[in-house]
Amino acid sequence: MAADPxxxxxxxxxxxxxxxxxxxxxxxxxxxxSSYRCANCARDYPIRFGIPxxxxxxxxxxxxxxxxxxxxxxxxxxxxFVDLVRAYYSxxxxxxxxLHTRYMASMDAAIGRGAGILSKMRSRFPLSGQETLLDxxxxxxxxxxxxxxxxxxxxxxxxxxxxxxxGKQRIRESGVNAILxxxxxxxxxxxxxxxxxxxxxxxxxxxxxxxxxxxxxxxxLKPGGAWFFVTNNRYSILPEPHVRIWGFGLLPRNVMExxxxxxxxxxxxxRLHSRKQLHALFDSVGEVMLPYYETGELGxxxxxxxxAWEKLRGVALIRRLAGxxxxxxxxxxxxxxxx
Length: 339
Ligand SMILES: [Zn+2]
Prior knowledge:
- This protein is of the alpha/beta class.
- It has a single domain (51-233, 273-334), classed as 3-Layer(aba) Sandwich (Rossmann fold).
- Helices cover 35% and strands 17% of the residues.
- It has eleven helices and eleven strands.
- It has helices at residues 16-19, 64-73, 81-90, 97-124, 142-147, 161-174, 210-220, 253-264, 275-282, 303-313, 316-321, and strands spanning 29-31, 35-38, 44-48, 51-52, 132-136, 153-158, 179-182, 195-201, 221-232, 287-289, 328-334.
- The strands form two sheets. Strands 7-6-5-8-9-11-10 form a seven-stranded mixed beta sheet, with helices on both faces. It has a four-stranded antiparallel beta sheet with strand order 1-2-3-4, covered by helices on one side.
- Strand 1 and strand 2 form a beta hairpin.
- Helix 3 (81-90) packs antiparallel against helix 6.
- The chain is globular, with a radius of gyration of 20 Å.
- The protein binds zinc ion.
């Protein structure tokens, strides 16, 4: 086996208890054999496949019962991460194979992508602490794994239990320690002011209420803590990233789902924001930025594109015009030191 490129952090799974709070009433929760129970409102949150499930609402793509039975059909015992992802797609005919290949490649690239996002957050907010990181909407844990390089304690949260089950195996294979929790980004099951940093890669466009997600992420940050979101632009000049259709963002919201089904045979629930919407949402708490990339970050084959973009980004008129149709935006801020 190749040497593990990641530093093994010291996280102890029992540490999770210290972070948790009831997502409904913020009361403290206690772990039983098969669930966490809120001491205040007595709500019970099941532990499923070893993952605490604090969701108040299911993933819009699948009901909780259907998801659990699907995970059971994966027969997770003894399967590697790659085996699990393959098994998952083999029982998910509603996603076409052409998109599987693309989704799998993007899962593969997620550790590198995550490392890039975390490094940008670090250079932008060098004074924020480095002890605790929350990966919001962690999926199969790419950025979570990257986070263990520099953070002592890394927790990944996602609404999709099935991706977390796969992510758990991936974390195990990576030889690092990180904890995964199933939750809605709009109702994070954590106590306030617990994390030094929070990052979210392509999550803002998948939550039911992005304003609530914004407020929740800021709530769980310590004063002086930093957050960094990457989000896809509705009006990107490139094809929509989930369905790979040009000009998809120009369609009215109410026909997107039908068009995605007709042309890609795939369900579509994302709600990509425009630059204007992001400004309305985030100007009061942070900054909406045009994307920027470090040397080699987009791969050697795209280095000339990256350099050209670096030049263009500095031109005011280009920023204004091209700025409306870039594929993604970075949105970031710091929780004020004392509020
Ligand atoms: Zn409660």
